[in-house]
Design goal:
Elements: E1 10-16, E2 21-27, E3 43-49, E4 55-59, E5 71-77, E6 81-85, E7 88-92, H1 94-100, E8 105-110, E9 115-118, E10 124-125, E11 131-133, E12 135-137, E13 144-145, E14 149-150, E15 154-162, E16 169-175, E17 183-187, E18 202-212, E19 215-223, E20 228-233, E21 236-241, E22 250-256
Antiparallel strand pairs: 1-2, 1-6, 2-3, 3-5, 4-5, 7-16, 8-9, 8-15, 9-12, 10-11, 11-14, 12-13, 15-16, 17-18, 18-19, 18-22, 19-20, 20-21
Length: about 260
């Protein structure tokens, strides 16, 4: 069984053991074997921590024994997978790229503004205190600053590059979460919409808290692939499902770094 290139690895949450246990797994690119009884029909290969509750579960590394917590591989019903993190890659011919208006660059597909050019895959904290991408307008050769693009409006990120074959373009799309992980980020305080982008005016350290059951819990980490947020609760750092937290429940604070 093989996995996709690092940037294209696919993950999902598997509801195993009759739906009693949920685990985050990597979905592998592998065709199921053919069997006379059809037991592999419609199944997909996954990798995760044992015990998965998957068919034909075995260690991912055949040199180790199958034990609790060991990385294992097995077959599961696709319908038991949810909350997919599924990047995609396609190669478009030069003719089709021109017809579709595809050109190299980094973009965000949005719910409200269509496809928007952005200056990179990393968001920052906008002046209104919301996470946002730095949006650009105008021609690629001479872009100007557009209004900030809030991350909660973005459906997926799109990177278009020249194809390695030299003909056409490669388009890679990845899911994105609306949250900004704690850390250091640039500040573009000199940007003016309609004018060319200006260098960052500094950096800030961003901290965040999640509002749950009327209490704020410090946010430590966001793992988009795992669809998980790590928060501080009762003196411990614990994981929670990211899809259960709306972007309006996260509070951000910025201080000079």
């Amino acid at each position: 069984m093989t996995t996709a290139p690092e940037a294209l690895r696919t993950f999902a949450t598997f509801d195993g053991h009759g739906g009693k246990v949920s685990k985050r797994v990597e979905v592998l690119e592998h065709e199921p074997p053919v069997s006379a009884d059809g037991r592999y029909d419609g199944l997909v290969a996954v990798r995760g921590e044992h015990p998965l509750g998957a068919l034909d579960e075995r260690p991912a590394d055949e040199s180790v024994a199958l034990a609790r917590g060991v990385a294992s591989i097995g077959w599961v019903d696709r319908t038991t997978l949810r909350d997919w993190y599924r990047p995609d890659r396609i190669v478009v011919t030069g003719i089709e790229a021109r017809r579709s208006g595809l050109e190299p660059g980094t973009f965000a597909d949005t719910r409200t503004r269509g496809r928007v050019r952005i200056d990179g895959l990393e968001a920052h904290l906008a002046t209104d205190g919301r996470p946002a991408f730095r949006a650009l307008a105008g021609p690629a050769a001479a872009p100007v600053v557009d209004l900030p693009l809030p991350t909660d409006q973005v459906v997926r990120l799109v990177v278009v590059t020249a194809a390695e074959s030299g003909s056409g373009v490669e388009v890679v799309t990845t899911p994105t979460a609306p949250f900004l992980a704690p850390g250091e980020y640039p500040v573009y305080g000199a940007d003016v919409p309609g004018l060319p982008p200006r260098p960052a005016t500094g950096r800030v350290r961003v901290t965040a808290s999640v509002l749950l059951d009327g209490e704020l819990h410090r946010l430590h980490q966001v793992d988009e692939r795992a669809a998980t947020m790590w928060i501080e609760r009762d003196g411990r750092v614990v994981p929670i499902a990211a899809n259960e937290v709306g972007p309006d429940l996260v509070r951000y604070t910025a201080s000079p770094s």
